[in-house]
Write a structure and sequence with these properties.
4-stranded antiparallel sheet; 29% helix; globular; DUF4188 domain-containing protein; Alpha-Beta Plaits; Dimeric_a/b-barrel; Monooxy_af470
């Protein structure tokens, strides 16, 4: 499994951002190997973390080819003050579990 952590400092969102963001999420969900996502908001600042769960690098690469996703990446300065993406391979995961909140989200 692979995790893609998208850390962002949001700027100003407009209607086009929301439309594109919805299209990108739909494309992710339609990609074979997409397992889900979780979002966290920092309580003391505007920073947001979104963690996407992928079955394989091939699945992630397939999503990366989406035209809306490519267009959004080119226009990030219009909507974010800063961003960072980290791709991580999960070698092991263990613990007591979180029931309905287990990762990856179902």
């Amino acid at each position: 499994m692979y995790l893609v952590t998208f850390r962002l400092d949001p700027g100003e969102y407009d209607a086009e951002f929301h439309e594109l963001n919805d299209a990108i999420q739909a494309a992710a969900e339609d990609t074979d190997g997409y397992l889900g996502k979780r979002t966290w908001n920092a309580p003391d600042r505007d920073e947001v973390l979104v963690v996407y769960y992928w079955e394989s690098l091939d699945a992630l690469d397939s999503f990366g080819d989406d035209a809306d996703h490519k267009r959004a990446k080119q226009r990030w300065t219009e909507w974010y003050d800063a961003y960072e993406v980290t791709v991580t391979e999960v070698l092991d995961a263990y613990g007591s579990g979180f029931g309905d909140d287990a990762d990856p989200p179902q």
